[in-house]
Amino acid sequence: MNRFFAFLLTLLIAASAVADDAVNRFNAAKQAFDAGQFTQARTGFEGFLTSFPNHAQSAEASFYLAESYLRLQLFDQAAAQYSKLISLGTENPCARAALFRIGEVPYLQGRYDLARPRLEEFVEKLPLDSNNQFTLYYLGDIALQENIPLESEFYFSECLRLYPQGERLADTQLGLALARNRLGKTSEADQLFQQLTNSTNPTVAETATYQWGVAQYERGAYQQAMSTLANFQARWPRSGMFPETQRVLARCKGELGDFNGALAIIDQITQPTTEDLLLKVKSLYGLKRSTEAQNLLTSIERNAEPAYRDEITLLKSIFLFDQKNWASVISLLDPMLAPQYTEATQRLVFNYFVMPSGGRKLSEESYLKACSLLTLASANKGDTAKANAAMSEMSGYAGLTGGTRLQNIVSDTSSQLNLIAKNPSSPGGSGRSPYNPYPGGNTNPGGNPFGGGGNVNPGGNPFDTAQNTDNDRRGGRRGDRSDRNPDWNRNNDLNPRLGADATELDKFQEASTQYDRQNWSSAAQILESLLNVQYSSWGAKQFYFNFVPSTAIGSLDETTFFRACSLAILCYARLGDMDRANAATNAMAGMIRSSDFSQQTLLRQTKEQLAEISRNASPPGGAGGYPGGTGGPTTPTTPTDLLSDTEQRRILQDCNSMYKLRKFEQLDEKLRDLMNRSASPAMKSEAALLRAKVALERKKDREALELLQLIVNDFPETDQNRDALWFLGLYYEDCGDTSRSIEYFQRLVDESPNDKNIDGALYFLAWDDIENNGGRKAATYLNRVYRSYPNGRYWSHATWTLAWLAFKKKDYSQAELYVQKVLQHPPDYAILDRVLYLKGELSLQRKDFDMATTAFREVSRLCPDSPLRDNADRNAQIAARATVSVK
To answer: How far apart are the C-alpha atoms of 238 and 220, rounded to whole Å?
Structure first.
């Protein structure tokens, strides 16, 4: 017995020693952490977790290990360690702290796309946690940085309401002041600024005074801004923000027309940034020292960061506008603004804000001025239809967005268009540019929305969407046989429309125009002369583009150079010289940068169009007969087998009657026979479409898809092509294959903008974009439905989606506007439950509990089968109780 107790005592002593060792090692690592010795702390906690993975303090050790990584700026390791802790559940204090940190770390890194959802998740899961004094501030600051002032105001206000004495009190008040300033609530903003500038904390007062001056500048109160910033300079002459105040003062002077004063301030800045130098260009321009301004801009462009691409392009376009070089203005602004012009409806849409960019996007005012320059340049070039369509789009945009300044730009542009129309020889663009390129909203910036890769519009000619026809968008316009002369480059002189003083941009523009007119040989010859090509057809065919891109005004920059290469390749293909086209493609591929997404995209789309042209080229001896392949086997016909037009029409009428009677089996045989015995593409395509509908009814999806694809490939000019695109898009949408559905819906939108299903195509494109790309283009698609198709089947769906997107962004006033519009529209019971439910949610946000109760109850009353009914009933009860409580 004594031996047993002796053994047990030995075990207890050993366990105690192990426990003491664990505690000692944890305490040593914690002491190192508290002393700021984070490398030593990291080593200690890593060793502790390796030796004692299941110790009672392992969660705490994991947290402090993550904190050590964070202090050592090992962000990835810190994030991984925090993620392990989150799995412990929010009841664990270390897991709660880790959940906060997992959102805070990317915020501190400026990775707002990662930070936002994680911070929102923390607030949702732990609404009463004390860390929300930071979380709410971070969310407000992210919204401010992303220029969503209404959302920013909401978060900052909530932070102040819940934590009136929080650790970030002054920062939160300053953020709220900035948000309200952007919302036009200037008196409320100034009250907060005044309070902060009088703070006893010198750092708070210094920052607030500077930010107040900037806010006054942003709202257009230039004299007030100058007074505030002069006060700042007097109080804090050695402040680190002093150079920034100089920059804002220079802008204020420029806005007030004191260009000499602006220049004097800029010249005082010892280490000017790119932005400072661009400010100097604008000041020189304001003083009519255009040559100095252009020379300085050329110098800046060689070394400027990609972020300034749009502004630089704008300034170049202004200088070219002054020189009446309309073609070059168009060449610069067209790929930037990405206009999509439909000749049939004479409607134009600018896609600038939905296109990717390698730099900062323009302000709304600057964007509209850039649109104005492009509009006026087009009018001066004689493209009146496109100019008028652009003018209409500008008016619609300004009307939707609001603001006196935007309306003034539209009014000025309209006046100048009228002058051009009345006196083409003395256009509104004669003399200097109609716009002062000064900052603060008076710039006319341009830019390449592809970040340097050129216009990658997937049409036949990827460079001028205004000229693309439906056939171009399929890459299939074949041209006349006379254009397929293999010796074209020896038979034509350089296009006589180009004068001796034509710039490189002029030549490229003319080549693009000739391409659109199907003058492949003329376009190719201009491009060969411009790009200085060299081709060897012996052995392994070699092709060289010997042109060197330049940044000089009027020349081809790298972006336009690659666009010209692509256009030359397509010309060769159109002319039937595929050897030369393939060799040129290889040469282009060897020159572009693998890291440049836009250039790679342009190359890929060039190859796709090259393949399409090759597929669509007529075989020797002329076009063949009807191919039966994808639509099922067909029997070769002879002239005696063909039916008369009258007989074909009668058979189709019978077939439509059989379809209504659902006699599908006999109907399919009858339609197949009709396709075999008809020479009319219209009849064949109509029969194929009806066969596809029959196949869908009989659940023969594969056969239906083959027939629909047959129509798209072989009968693109028939009315049934539009229906085929629509059905293909719907089919793949239902299957969840969004990449294919996008392909067909986008083609329908591009090729047939007046089709009866266009509002549905735009609606589904919006939802596909929301699911795949975060909704970057969704608002553009939905707004087109909202503005242009009020009687369409999908108008209510699109408008409700706009309301839902606004609600997600906490733009409640905009969401309510859309909800009201839907409810005023003839009722659409397919979405009525969602609209009423959203109305209830919006009423709760306004604390209008009576309205919320009514809206939620209407869901059950009007839509008893709605899946939202249970939630609506529950919310109605909550709102009703709140109503009683308030009363």
So the answer is: 27
Beta carbons within 10 angstroms of residue 645's beta carbon: 13
3-state secondary structure of 33: helix
What is the signed CA dihedral for 640, 645, 646, 648, rounded to 10 degrees?
A: 80
Angle in degrees, CA 381, 382, 388, rounded to 5:
110
- Residue 288, judged by CB atoms within 10 A of its CB (0-12, 13-18, 19+), counts as exposed
Q: Which residues of 573-608 are buried (b: 16+ CB within 10 A; e: fewer)?
A: bbbbbeebbbbbbebbeeebeeebbbbbbbbebbbe
3-class SS of residue 493: coil
Q: For residue 299, how many C-alpha atoms fall within 13 Å in the half-sphere facing its CB?
A: 11
Q: Which amino acid is at 258?
A: D
Give which of 285, 304, 639 is closest to 436, Cα–Cα.
285
836: number of Cβ within 10 Å: 26
Predicted pLDDT of residue 641: 57
Q: Say how many C-beta atoms besides its own lie within 10 A of residue 165's C-beta.
A: 7
- Joined tokens for residue 511: 């080549």
pLDDT of residue 569: 93
Give the span between the Cα atoms of 20 and 602, in whole angstroms: 67
- Enumerate the H helices of 520-633 as residue ranges: 520-531, 558-574, 578-591, 597-616
C-alpha–C-alpha distance, residues 707 and 687, integer Å: 10
H-type alpha helices, 126-201: 132-145, 149-162, 169-182, 186-197
Sign of the alpha-carbon dihedral angle for 244, 246, 252, 255: negative
Question: Is the CB of residue 548 less than 8 Å from the CB of residue 565?
Answer: no
Residue 39 is which amino acid?
T
Please name which of 381, 374, 386 lies closest in space to residue 413, comparing C-alpha atoms: 374
Query: DSSP characters for 304-346?
Result: --GGGHHHHHHHHHHHHHHTT-HHHHHHHHHHHH-EEEETTTT
At CA 239, angle to CA 234 and CA 240, rounded to 5? 145
Is residue 459 a contact partner of residue 606, using CB atoms and an 8 Å limit?
Answer: no
For 169, which DSSP code? H
CB 804 within 8 A of CB 769: no
- Residue from 316, 423, 306, 405 nearest 363 by CA: 405
Which residue's structure tokens are 């900062």?
360
Q: Which two tokens stand for residue 441?
A: 């909203």
Q: Exposed (0-12), middle (13-18) or buried (19+): which is 375, by Cβ within 10 Å?
A: buried
* Nearest-angstrom CA–CA distance, 796 and 260: 55
Query: For residue range 731-778, what is the model confidence (pLDDT) as tens digits?
Result: 888 877 778 888 888 888 888 877 888 888 889 988 888 877 777 778
Query: For 533, phi and psi rounded to 5 degrees?
Result: -85, 160
Q: Give pLDDT tens digits for 639-665.
A: 335 666 666 777 777 777 777 777 777
Amino acid at 167: E
Residues of the chain with pLDDT under 70: 1-20, 354-358, 399-404, 424-501, 516-517, 537-540, 551-554, 594-598, 616-647, 679, 827, 883-887
What residue has token string 């092709």? 543
Which pLDDT belongs to residue 594? 66
For 161, the token pair is 């309401």
Distance CA 533, CA 567 (A): 13
How many beta carbons lie within 10 A of that of residue 422, not counting itself? 10
**How many whole angstroms from its chain centre is CA 600?**
18
Type of residue numbered 754 = N
How far is CA 693 from its chain centroid? 36
Chain mean position to CA 823: 30
